[in-house]
């Protein structure tokens, strides 16, 4: 069980930095226990589990890992926690962005260096509610993943590419995943090597690589590369809620479109995803006027 310590170069909000990797409550591949973060994933060296704890008194991050992927995870701990991220490159052009950065100085952009780990759940989140996507991810990992190395028994590692390809059609249906999304995942895992190469590309090339596969559009590519590359400019377009939140926070107006959101964020070119994250952290959202969209369940059909 190898272990490491790391001295962050500046303020680090561990939970908000890594929280974007969690796919809903009960995510079998991510958890929080006794204030420590746990992450199970499939690395190029094999399955691994990482436990990360902040030790404020010492100003350090302490980590230990289990499994064949343990050394790979520990070697990349600083990158995961945003060592190469530079929040200072954003110049606040709105008071709400300035205030959010002042209140949350330790939020960095995590960089996992893994593509399928973020691409598959992002595909599951296409055109459905978050609750539906989280349920599908949870069921698929519980049924078809493998027990994660280490002492936390509930943790699961997602299947290897061949394992995803062998999931029968009725199991996708039971998890509430329609044929369009399951087909996109199967195409991705069949091209797993080329997909993972995107982790070593710049944002533009990585986006083109992902979008070369049918079923992966700008929304899915951005959601994936925000996590894989820690890309500060990977702004999500095509989202049901984000443009409305950004528009309301910056102008007080409702009904902002993607095009209008991009125009509002133009002063943050190169840092648009970071600006959007800070705006979301501000908590300024338009008041709800309609009931929450009902959760569907194709497994009942």
From TrEMBL:
SUPFAM superfamilies, A to Z: DNA-glycosylase (SSF48150)
Biological process terms in GO annotation: base-excision repair, AP site formation; DNA alkylation repair
GO terms, molecular function: alkylated DNA binding; DNA-3-methyladenine glycosylase activity; DNA-7-methylguanine glycosylase activity
Key words of the record: DNA damage, DNA repair
Reaction(s) catalysed (UniProt annotation): Hydrolysis of alkylated DNA, releasing 3-methyladenine, 3-methylguanine, 7-methylguanine and 7-methyladenine
Presence of the UniProt keyword DNA repair in the record: yes
Domain of life according to the entry: Bacteria
GO cellular component labels: cytoplasm; protein-DNA complex
Protein name: DNA-3-methyladenine glycosylase II
